[in-house]
Amino acid sequence: xxxxxxKIFKLADTLNEKQNKVYAEIKYTADDRKRLIIxxxxxxDFCYLERCEIQLxxxxxxxxxxxxxxxxxxxxxxxxx
Length: 81
Hints:
By secondary structure, the chain is of the alpha+beta class. The chain has one domain. It is built from two helices and three strands. A three-stranded antiparallel beta sheet has the order 1-2-3. A hairpin with a 5-residue loop joins strand 2 and strand 3. The mean pLDDT is 85.
């Protein structure tokens, strides 16, 4: 899990540096649910384009590769208008 989180953090930084239309926001709440919220937000009007909420404490059937691929698409400019 740690390796995938590191990839997501690096892609979030790259997204902000390479895209002028979107940026990433990552929030983690270390309460009983251990909630991780990953969002891609428009820089123009600050609306959420993509949002994923994961509760790590509940043994999620999480597909880290899907989240990483989503970030890669935005870094490459595929999903921007």
